[in-house]
């Protein structure tokens, strides 16, 4: 890694799954504001995100909002409250809207008992109109996938499953507190495919403790043998000040910046050599996958689940800590299950913070999304689409000049393009247009 690359790789910048980013949400946006926003929604398809914050155990590396539960009863009780929230949101919207995309996250949402899961799905069908061909995706822990769970997902018309693989190396698995064999993952994939769930995603990670080039290459090789349609390659974000479970990881076992970059490059090269299309910062897909097609057609998007083909402008977040995106702004539910439950039982949305958007926010959000998905954005075109003058975004071009001088970006008039050398640092390029970042106190993960 050159000195220039090291300078950018070690910068702390957001992942830009939203703009403005969550640390800038505030408590001025609460239940009443959200209720008003829901009542004023345009008649357009929407997307649903359901968060189930339970796992059987917490992995050392985990950065998700979840907690351990060995019993099903707390999870089933959570499901009953989730049903109440669905009905509450539906009543506030005031109409039966079309749904184009559903995504279950967590945690391990498949831990929801079958009866509860099916009751939630029944409630969703009562509340919303599911569009033909809608995508229904869920995140899974391969260690918990059984024939019954695969059958429940098939009954619920799940079309895509994302499995957390991370790394197949036993030494790495021991260091991150997640022991799962290749056979465990292969069995989970087989059970899903036997039920007709053929769209399979794998999540892999680089930058993990004790991870070596040999280990990550072998992990990619074994993952490819199971022929997933998509692979997400995430950099481990070590944020022990935010996630106490990460203090269980010995920081001396973590790779330094140079080694971390080499791990990322080795994994990317192996995946691309296998015929997968590189998509944005950290995703890969087979050429015939809808995500690869969206990239070619310029319709790729980015939201809280990362890169996505979901083009709905309205995202309804359901469950503790879930985030929603509406034309008026972003909202976030109470992160603690108790606070979330009490709000719903009292009959009002469990929203505790958010942010209202103005045209400046929307314009910068579009520029950032274009950079994160296509590595290129025309500032003038996007600004005028929002009724703004491009000169109002000139601060972004000024901040980007450093990357231009270093050969990582090109500015031609009002058009901004990240070069091939700059692609690993696209988050830094996006940050140039972030008007909140300089005034914020939030700590973020490193850029690579």
Radius of gyration: 21 Å
Structural category is alpha/beta
Query: What does the oligomeric state look like here?
Result: single chain
Mean pLDDT: 94
Proportion of strand residues? 15-25%
Indicate the percent of residues in helices: 25-40%
Number of helices: 15
Number of strands: 19
Q: Tell me about the largest β-sheet.
A: 9 strands, mixed
> Strands across the major sheet, in which order?
9-10-8-7-6-5-4-1-13
Terminal CA distance reads 12 Å
**Low-confidence runs:** none
Shape: globular
Explain how this protein is built:
By secondary structure, the chain is an alpha/beta fold. Helices cover 38% and strands 21% of the residues. It has 15 helices and 19 strands. The strands form 5 sheets. A 9-stranded mixed sheet has the order 9-10-8-7-6-5-4-1-13, with helices on both faces. The longest helix is centred in the first third of the chain and has 21 residues, at 73-93. The N and C termini lie close together (12 Å).
């Amino acid at each position: 890694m050159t000195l220039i690359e090291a300078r950018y790789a070690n910068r702390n910048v957001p992942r830009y799954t939203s703009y403005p980013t969550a640390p800038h949400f505030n408590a001025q946006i609460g239940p009443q504001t959200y209720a008003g926003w829901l009542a004023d929604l345009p008649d357009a398809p929407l997307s649903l995100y359901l968060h189930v914050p339970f796992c059987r155990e917490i992995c050392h590396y985990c950065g998700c909002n979840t907690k351990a539960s060995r019993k099903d009863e707390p999870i089933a009780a959570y499901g009953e409250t989730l049903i109440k929230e669905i009905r509450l949101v539906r009543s506030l919207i005031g109409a039966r809207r079309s749904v184009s995309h559903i995504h279950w996250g967590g945690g391990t949402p498949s831990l929801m008992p079958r009866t509860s899961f099916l009751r939630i799905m029944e409630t969703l069908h009562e509340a919303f109109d599911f569009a033909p061909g809608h995508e229904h995706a869920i995140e899974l822990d391969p260690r918990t996938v059984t024939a019954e769970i695969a059958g429940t997902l098939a009954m619920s018309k799940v079309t895509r499953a994302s499995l957390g693989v991370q790394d197949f190396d036993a030494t790495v698995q021991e260091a991150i507190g997640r022991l799962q064999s290749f056979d465990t993952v292969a069995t989970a994939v087989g059970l899903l495919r036997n039920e007709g769930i053929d769209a399979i995603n794998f999540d892999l990670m680089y930058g993990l403790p004790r991870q070596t080039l040999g280990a990550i290459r072998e992990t990619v090789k074994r993952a490819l043998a199971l022929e997933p349609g998509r692979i997400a390659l995430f950099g481990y974000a070590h944020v022990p000040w935010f996630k106490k479970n990460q203090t269980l990881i010995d920081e001396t076992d973590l790779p330094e910046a140079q080694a971390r970059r080499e791990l990322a490059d080795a994994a990317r090269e192996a995946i691309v050599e296998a015929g997968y299309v590189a998509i944005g910062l950290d995703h890969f897909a087979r050429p015939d996958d809808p995500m690869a097609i969206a990239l070619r057609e310029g319709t790729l998007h980015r939201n809280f689940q990362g890169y996505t083909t979901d083009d709905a402008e309205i995202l309804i977040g359901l469950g503790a800590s879930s985030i929603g995106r509406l034309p008026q702004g972003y909202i976030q539910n109470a992160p603690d299950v108790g606070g979330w439950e009490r709000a719903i039982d009292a009959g009002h949305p469990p929203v505790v913070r958010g942010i209202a958007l103005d045209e400046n926010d929307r314009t910068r959000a579009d520029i950032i999304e274009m950079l994160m998905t296509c590595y290129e954005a025309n500032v003038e075109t996007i600004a005028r689409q929002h009724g703004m003058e491009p000169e109002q975004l000139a601060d972004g071009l000024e901040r980007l000049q450093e990357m231009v001088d270093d050969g990582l970006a090109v500015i031609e008039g009002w058009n901004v393009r990240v070069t091939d050398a700059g692609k690993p640092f696209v988050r830094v390029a996006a940050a140039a247009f972030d008007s909140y970042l300089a005034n914020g106190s939030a700590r973020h993960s490193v850029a690579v």
